[in-house]
Design a protein that fits this description.
The protein is an all-alpha fold. Helix content is about 65%, strand content about 0%.
């Protein structure tokens, strides 16, 4: 990663939350420990074996939700960075066009309006289309898969497809794409 902390804060928070959940899972297995009650983990009074399954099921669900939320957090951070870069690039290109494309060239007065900006490239799908032939094919394919996964989460599984990548892998992929930009 060239800008070492692009996703560092998100990953640190994600790791901390995973460790808190692992600790909570362990404490919840012990019926003598009232921790599960204190943090409102919905467990019924069952035998130890059944309680283990119930705790495992609950924390597996919690882990999946945590992964989904941090995946969305990573993608949102990526979008923020990309759209800031688009805004900066658009401003620079407009300035260049205004300076170098002058009278008597056709459309010289409105030439800068031909330059795309954040309003023209308003979605991650549009960013992907813009980058598609300008980043390595494997990154373009991974970005497409990330967009599909984002849509899958955001639309409750109705749209898109889940990704096999972990939150940590997503951070590396997104960071590599930013390096190419």
């Amino acid at each position: 990663m060239s800008e070492n902390n692009r996703f560092e804060e998100e990953l640190r928070t994600y790791t901390c939350l995973k460790k808190i959940c692992e600790n909570a899972r362990e404490r919840s297995l012990n019926p003598a420990d009232k921790y599960a009650q204190k943090v409102l983990i919905p467990l019924s009074e069952k035998k130890a074996g059944e309680r283990r399954k119930e705790v495992a099921r609950y924390f597996d669900t919690l882990h999946s939700k945590t992964d989904a939320l941090f995946f969305l957090d990573m993608v949102a951070r990526f979008e923020q960075i990309v759209f800031d870069k688009i805004d900066n690039a658009s401003g620079q290109i407009r300035r260049i066009v205004k300076e170098l494309y002058a009278k008597p060239d056709p459309f010289s007065k409105i030439a800068a309006s031909f330059v795309k900006n954040q309003d023209d490239i308003h979605s991650l799908r549009n960013v992907h289309n813009l980058l598609e032939n300008h980043i390595p094919k494997y990154l373009s394919e991974q970005l497409a898969a990330i967009i599909e996964h984002r849509n899958f989460i955001a639309h409750g599984g109705r749209i898109g497809r889940p990704s096999p990548h972990s939150v940590e892998e997503i951070a590396l992929i997104l960071d590599e794409i930013l390096d190419h930009i």
